[in-house]
Design goal:
three-stranded antiparallel beta sheet; 321 residues; 43% helix
């Protein structure tokens, strides 16, 4: 009788464990708020676009996305926070192409493939600008000026980050070893250096540009994205002018390595739905950005091409670690 009782008891415990395990396995993600690490200070284009999606996250995810700004080393400090996080989908990374450049230059000891690429969400552009009193009126005149005046043009860059590679590509287009780089912080620091006369040209994120163009303080010469920005349609691309300077500016979502595929799919598909929301499109437009969704497979293809492009620049400009 006692033996039978033990068997029944063990069977009951086993059933309870199966039910508990099944419920845990099929728990609906997300069950709590999601931490999104933005790798730059509040107020810039990266932060602003992340907050557009976070604004509607509770409506779409059923839980809020909480933005956490972790600045430093061209975005690598924040990226490392996610790289070391638990792969449960509750710590994500919002970052542009700096993850690739940081690894090439040795600022980061990990690469994008050491994380879980999830999706691409939106795109904006970098604009190469000069002060209005600079001799060059367009990008062809600028490249010619750089060629004929070696070491006379200074550009502010975040060493090892995307602006460093962008400047290097422009320098290569002008013959190489022509531009002097000046260490700087983010976009606001680059703008102040330009307006203050400490540099002759700068790369600025698109939202920064229109007000200073309209006030007559700066002149926009070219965008380094593959296509023209719909918000600055009169500004040509380097590519269409025949210069091999291409630097996309897209916001990508990553997670730690070894994330569950169903959780990855849920995150990606939810961002796709948000990117199709007219309110998101309208809000992004305020920062001269637009939805640009890629799923995991498409994002990985994009990042591999980026590796090739930036890798060539690193070789030619001797930027590799």
């Amino acid at each position: 009788m006692r033996t039978r009782f033990v068997h029944v008891y063990l069977a009951l415990i086993t059933c309870m464990l199966i039910v508990f395990t099944s419920n845990a396995a099929f728990a609906v993600y997300p069950e709590r708020p999601i931490k999104m690490v933005v790798t730059y200070k509040p107020g810039g284009g990266n932060d602003a676009t992340a907050r557009v999606f976070a604004k509607y996250s509770e409506e779409y995810f059923g839980q809020p996305i909480i933005i956490t700004n972790i600045d430093g080393a061209g975005g690598i400090v924040g990226a490392r926070e996610v790289y070391k996080a638990k792969p449960d989908g509750y710590t994500l990374l919002w970052m542009h192409e700096a993850l690739t450049t940081g690894n090439l230059t040795g600022v980061a000891d990990f690469k994008w493939s050491d994380l879980t690429p999830i999706c691409q969400t939106c795109a904006t552009a970098d604009v190469i600008v000069v002060r209005s009193d600079f001799p060059a009126k367009n990008i062809d005149e600028f490249i010619e000026y750089v060629k004929n005046n070696p070491k006379k043009v200074r550009m502010p860059i975040n060493i090892g980050a995307t602006t460093h590679f962008e400047m290097a590509a422009i320098d290569i287009a002008a013959g190489g070893n022509k531009i002097v780089h000046v260490a700087s912080g983010g976009g606001s620091d680059r703008l102040q250096k330009l307006l203050g006369g400490f540099v002759e040209a700068a790369s600025l994120n698109a939202p920064t540009v229109p007000q200073y163009v309209q006030s007559g303080q700066i002149r926009a010469l070219a965008v380094s994205t593959p296509e023209r920005s719909p918000f600055l349609p009169e500004v040509p691309t380097f590519k269409e002018k025949g210069y091999n300077v291409v630097k996309p500016y897209n916001m990508n979502v990553f997670g730690p390595a070894k994330m569950d595929s169903d959780v990855v799919r849920t995150i990606s598909e939810t961002f796709k739905k948000m990117s199709e929301d007219p309110r998101v499109k309208s809000d992004l437009a305020k920062f001269l950005a637009m939805p640009h969704y890629l799923d995991q497979t498409e994002l990985e293809k994009f990042l591999k091409e980026l590796d090739r492009n930036f890798g060539e620049i690193a070789e030619k400009a001797n930027l590799k670690k």
